[in-house]
Design goal:
It is built from 34 helices and 34 strands. The protein is an alpha/beta fold. The strands form eight sheets. Strands 5-4-19-18-17-6-7 form a seven-stranded mixed β-sheet. Strands 11, 14, 25, 26, 27 and 28 form a six-stranded mixed β-sheet that branches. Strands 30-32-31-34-29-33 form a six-stranded mixed β-sheet, with no helix packed on it.
Length: 940
């Protein structure tokens, strides 16, 4: 049978797809597929993209990934990939792949911030990194340096970065781009359950009979999960019910039995309406509520995470909005929503007295009677009037939908799963709205059991595994430990084998604050890992200018020349996913590992290698002496204790953090786990043994490897944090033999449903005899008592094994066009599209994905376009108080906004919509609200 290469690949792909779908395959096709695959080596891996965590199979030949297919053994995707998943190989082979370090050099060969990029050796790159770092670090201290981390780090990379920054440099200025997508979910988990991450798992999709999506366009953001929802719906169309709540019509609406288009920010009101209905209908599961929950609330006057309006960098146009960080006038609709608190009437000035420091987090226990009183104003009439988002829908129609929604939640014979993603999390009250969805589920007792639960979906492949579980946030340490907790610091220092007092007790800069501190001149040196901060951060004009014009030094690890690489001073070329060993943690707590498949091009190296190599540049005496920080904090000199531990002041951070004797002894390379299960050939390990390129490394010598299995060593150390504490992970080798495990993994068994004694060994350990649930999370489990106005006790009361049912009020967004008097009369919402991943750095290099979606469009209601005299694909200006961009309008696309709202995706660096977006954040989570900003639209 004669075929060309293209036909070979097509046949192979067809056979793989047919196998996954259970379709009979003709013998000649099987033979052709076998011939096409001659010389290929297959191995299991994980998709590079969203937090779904699909398993894939990777085929390599001649040091190149030649094919990708869905892994039929993966319980997540069952052999199917989405369109991005099928192009996991092509993202690695773009024509403009970065393959050598680039430094801004003048004609004399000296670093010059205004000079063009020129290629340099790894040694020259690290020499300049070190020189610039120590210039700022020695003068300004640990708070003057920082790292933009990522929910796309491998787990080992994130763990290494946390060790270097927090134990080495004694700074907590490391924060991941997961701050942009998952931080509100984290606070919701902490405040409600005392522990992070969902109780349920993807099995709930098939086990439930009701799916409610709240601001979660799963059809495009989590297409494989949506395919499972679709399959469940089509297999049981009469019983299985799907509701899509959104601020605009999207692809989820095509399958949904009911679509609810609501006004931005009013999801808070809708959830309070449902809570009120649960009480009115006597649908409260009192046995569950009395045994396992308490009622709680917090302050309403907490601001919007905006800058101080007196900051010199706030422009006159921005002040209109930014002043609301200090005070706002209470609207009539807010006065009703807040009426039970009894503090504010319409027209009153609400001073944001609880906006600073830890005050937004303060909460206290209240009685059920107070809770009932608080939700009483959220009647059907009030909420429908406030929340209706489609001007062309009648109020009566919207009321019927809200009532049907409440019917579904309250039906005792229905199981129900609520899914959400950025629609909840990227929200000025993101933590609140996360808490409110748990309020509804906890009132009903529909939580933490098969087919019942509120489920936060993640956006990035390891936003759970690396950002959250590892603790690459400015306030976190591994396994839910916190830098501000002295006991947690002590545990961490012991496991890291560093002196007590090494870790800085003050929380570092969150992602947006890091940008603001760069502009304010307080952060001088920044290193970017697996991230594109100057494209993905709201109000981007400020940060782009600060990066290029201020006294600072910016290093970007990158694989392609994206926006952040182009504003950098030094670019380090980085190995991509299958060019290194790694692990991710997905949205259902499933941890998955993969082997390195191929060697990176040019002299690109893994992020982990850059972290370990840079650690060689610091002696203990340079970092572990006493530091007096700008806020008055004193970090003690720990060198004497270090000596007592057997260290020398001349030792490097590499020696102490990454090159420990026990690593070398216990984790030798080569390791049998590196053998391919099918061929028996050894997989490469660039960090452990170098590779055939003989890369001249950071010391000017050929890098021959560290001589031990550094990824395995870091994994085995990291997993010690969670063992016995409800975050148990399996050993390294086990993950290479299975298709992932959902933690906690106890005695070799994964946990599907946490807090439920039938499935969770920790729930069995903590539950009282005869009880089915134990919400055993330890954080924030002692609170004061009070009423709706505030706490009334100084004493904190313990809440062992209890979850909290929160009241949180609806409040108007600080830039709601309804109240705008300056002509910014459209809502702007941002989001993603199926074809592209975040900033498009990888997917825009894939020809098929580029052709499918070559530019970001401004999705607009056709009635709005007609009123503005615009036609489809006309070029328009989208202008806010912060900046403007041009884009073509689309009135017939997949996203169909109601009148008064436009949606613009953010993948396209040519249409940098984050120049327009508002940098307001949830005051608790510090996550930016990318879904809401007031804009003007006019023809370009």
């Amino acid at each position: 049978m004669s075929m060309n290469r293209r036909d070979f690949l097509k046949t192979t792909a067809a056979v793989a797809a047919a196998s996954a779908a259970g379709i009979a395959i003709p013998e000649d096709a099987k033979a052709a597929s076998k011939e096409a695959e001659q010389g290929w080596q297959w191995d299991k891996a994980v998709c590079r993209f969203c937090g779904t965590g699909c398993g894939i199979m990777i085929a390599t030949k001649g040091n190149k990934v030649v094919a990708v297919k869905g892994d039929p053994e993966s319980p997540v995707n069952r052999g199917i990939n989405c369109i991005k998943g099928y192009f996991n190989a092509k993202i690695m082979y773009g024509a403009d792949r970065l393959t050598q370090p680039l430094l801004r050099l003048n004609d004399k060969g000296e670093f010059d911030k205004n000079a063009p990029f020129r290629p340099v050796s790894w040694k020259r790159a690290f020499d300049e990194m070190e020189r610039q770092f120590k210039k700022y670090y020695n003068k300004y201290g640990p708070t003057a340096v920082g790292v933009f981390g990522s929910g796309q780090y491998t787990i080992q990379e994130g763990y290494a970065a946390v060790k270097l920054v927090k134990a080495g440099w004694r700074s907590n200025n490391i924060d991941p781009n997961a701050r942009h997508c998952m931080a509100s979910a984290v606070v919701g988990f902490y405040q409600t359950f005392g522990i992070d991450e969902p109780a349920g798992c993807y099995d709930d999709i098939e086990l439930t009979d009701t799916v409610i999506t709240w601001g979660a366009n799963m059809a495009e953001m989590h297409p494989i999960l949506w395919s499972r929802v679709s399959d469940a719906k089509l297999n049981n169309p009469d019983k299985y019910y799907v509701v899509n709540l959104s601020t605009y019509r999207n692809r989820c609406s095509n399958l949904a039995d009911m679509e609810i288009i609501f006004r931005p920010n009013t999801d808070l009101a809708i959830l309070n309406y449902i809570a009120r209905e649960i009480i009115k209908r006597d649908a409260v599961n009192w046995d569950f509520v009395k045994k396992h929950t308490v009622f709680a609330t917090g302050h309403a006057d907490i601001g919007y995470g905006l800058r101080n309006p007196n900051n010199p960098h706030v422009t006159p146009k921005e002040k209109d909005t930014v002043e609301k960080q200090v005070a706002k006038v209470v609207t009539e609709e807010e006065a009703i929503a807040l009426s039970a608190i009894g503090k504010w009437k319409a027209g009153d000035e609400m001073k944001m007295t609880h906006a600073a420091g830890k005050k937004p987090f303060w909460h206290w226990e209240i009685s059920f009677e107070d809770f009932k009183k608080a939700v009483e104003p959220y009647t059907l009439d009030y909420v429908a009037k406030v929340a209706k988002g489609d001007k062309d829908e009648s109020l009566e129609s919207f009321k019927r939908k809200l009532k049907k929604l409440a019917d579904l939640y309250c039906d005792p014979n229905r199981k129900i799963v609520s899914f959400w993603t950025m629609g909840f999390n990227q929200h000025v009250r993101g933590s609140w709205v996360n808490e409110l969805i748990y309020t509804v589920h906890l009132l009903l007792g529909k939580q933490a059991e098969p087919g019942n639960g509120a489920f936060s979906l993640t956006g990035q492949p390891s936003a759970c595994g690396t950002a959250r579980e590892v603790g690459t946030f400015a306030h976190r340490l591994p396994a839910d430990l916190l830098v501000a907790n002295p006991k947690h610091r002590k545990i961490t220092e012991k496991l890291w084998k560093v002196p007590h007092g090494t870790i800085n007790p003050k929380v570092g800069n969150h992602f947006l604050k890091m940008m603001r501190e760069i502009e304010d001149g307080n952060v001088k040196w920044v290193w970017v890992h697996v991230n594109n901060p100057w494209q993905n951060t709201a109000n981007a004009n400020h940060w782009l200018k600060a990066a290029r014009e201020m006294d600072n030094f910016i290093v970007v690890n990158e694989c392609y020349p994206g926006v952040s690489a182009r504003v950098a001073d030094l670019i380090l070329p980085i190995a991509m996913i299958y060019e290194k060993w790694g692990a991710y943690g997905n949205a259902e707590r499933r941890t998955q590992h993969w082997r390195q498949q191929v060697i990176a091009p040019g002299i690109a190296m893994p992020d982990l290698w850059t972290i370990a190599e840079f650690a060689k540049r610091f002696k203990l005496k340079e970092v572990w002496h006493e530091w007096k920080l700008p806020d008055g904090t004193v970090l003690p000199n720990v060198l004497e204790e270090a000596k007592a531990m057997g260290y020398s002041p001349e030792d490097t951070l590499f020696d102490v953090l990454f090159n420990r004797p026990e690593y070398r002894k216990n984790f030798p390379w080569p390791d049998p786990i590196a053998k391919n299960p099918q061929t028996g050939k050894m997989h490469p390990n660039t960090e452990a043994e170098g590779d055939f390129r003989n890369v001249v490394g950071s010391d000017g010598k050929v890098f021959k490897g560290y001589g031990f299995f550094i990824q395995k060593a870091l994994w085995e150390e990291y997993r010690k944090f969670g063992i016995g504490h409800g975050h148990d992970l399996a050993d390294f080798d086990t993950y290479h033999k299975v298709r992932g495990l959902r933690w906690p993994v106890v005695n070799g068994h994964e946990t599907k449903w946490r807090f439920n004694v039938d499935y969770d060994p920790y729930a069995r350990k903590h539950a009282k005899p005869g009880e089915k649930f134990a919400f055993y999370g330890p954080l924030l489990k002692a609170i004061k008592k009070g009423d709706l106005k505030g706490p009334k006790t100084k004493k904190k009361y313990p809440l062992p094994n209890k979850a909290k049912i929160f009241f949180r009020p609806f409040m108007v967004h600080p830039e709601d066009p309804k109240y705008d008097t300056k002509g910014y009369n459209f809502w702007l919402c941002t989001g993603r599209v199926l074809e592209h991943w975040h900033t498009g750095t990888m997917t825009m290099r894939v020809p098929e994905l580029y052709r499918a979606m070559p530019e970001a469009l401004c999705y607009m209601n056709p009635k709005d376009a007609k009123e503005l005299g615009l036609k489809r694909f006309d070029l328009v200006v989208i202008e806010s108080r912060r900046g403007k961009v041009k884009a073509r309008i689309e009135t017939r696309g997949r996203n169909k906004p109601p009148r008064g709202l436009v949606m613009v995706p953010w993948f396209d660096e040519k249409i940098l919509i984050n120049k327009v977006c508002l940098d307001a954040t949830c005051p608790l989570s510090k996550e930016t609200d990318y879904k809401k900003a007031a804009v003007k639209i006019y023809k370009a």
